[in-house]
User: What shape does this take?
Amino acid sequence: MEPDMADLITELDRLIVDLGLAVMAVQVTPAGDGPDVDVGREEMPLTAFVRAAHQAGARILYRITREFDLEEFSASLPDDGDEEARAARARLLRQARRHKGEVTEVEVAFACDGVLHRWSTTPSWYDRLRDDADTARASAHGERNDPVDRGEREALVQRLAAELAAMPAFRRRGSTEHGARAAAYEHAEMIPLLDRPDADWTADGILRRARTRVDTETERRYEALTARLPELAEELAADERFLAFTRVADRRDHASEFLAERNDGYRPPVRIRDRLMNTPPLLGGKPTQRPASLYDGLPASPTTS
Assistant: This one.
């Protein structure tokens, strides 16, 4: 029996409170070729997944829910064509109106020992509606360039996500959704995907997956770099551009760029940047002064032969 999406959310909220888990409303999607466990309700009930996260020692649970946007769905459908195509569009919209504002996806994820575990589900009505809409688009455009088959779409998402994550510009700007979209325009294949209505979330899926790939690699790189923080702090404390800034915010930005330049464009997590700015000889982003000595300013003692 298919669960009610609203009941799932209520049950999830209760479990989170009961187990004392921290929740971040952040979309998480595993990289195509990275370590991950990707399951749905066929493999494991939601309650079992959340309990597994708790038993694994997870203190942060990534969670997102999406609602059906009727206007976006309508804009994604072809509005030209013959009488049969127009009738198919009208039929789809009648079906879609019944579900306006309903939840279309529940996704939960947690990380453990470098492996991302993700659970997600979509209601059957949404799967059917999305498939019917893909068929309508393919019929309207004749020979299609965009994937309709789910396997083909997934292959496209994985490939473009990997290519975006390999771009230094995307790694530098992809920490925010707006920055990720702007950087993605530098990839020729992303331009038409970003410029058209994204009812099937192909562009959104590519960006989310690419950002997750970057986040995963960022954590790996900077975890390995912590042992070098004293060395890097010495280098940053001698950086004339860094010393020229008088505002702490400017020094933080420069420290982030300093680390990114030494890590192929991967911007540091805030905690790593802040640790660097408080690693001697830095304190609060400023070089520490050597304590004054009673002997400062005195002439050197004569040497004896």
Remarks:
- Residues 227-287 form one domain.
- DSSP finds 14 helices and seven strands in the chain.
